[in-house]
Design brief:
Blueprint (H helix, E strand, L loop, with lengths): L2 H13 L5 H13 L3 H5 L11 H6 L3 H13 L4
Helix pairs in contact: 2-5
Length: about 80
């Protein structure tokens, strides 16, 4: 994990945003399935309107991130 990734994660934890069980379960699934899951969570994606998956999760849009993740995992959409 890069230093910037670690920094963002610490900021998020300090803000208390990591308490949502559904969000944490999705993050765990992503980290377990994608080789660079933490980096992917913090990388803007055009199918999320240029937002990062983590930004969408924090905004409560877990379903969009889950759908994109499953598309990548099972269909191969990058």
């Amino acid at each position: 994990m890069s230093a910037s990734t670690r920094s963002v994660k610490l900021q998020l934890m300090a803000a208390g945003h990591l308490r949502n069980d559904a969000a944490e379960a999705l993050r765990a699934d992503i980290r377990g399935a994608l080789p660079y899951g933490d980096d992917w969570l913090l990388t803007p994606h055009q199918l999320l309107g240029g937002d990062t998956p983590e930004q969408r999760i924090l905004a409560g849009d877990i379903e969009s991130v889950r759908n994109l993740f499953l598309s990548i995992l099972y269909i191969g959409v990058a």
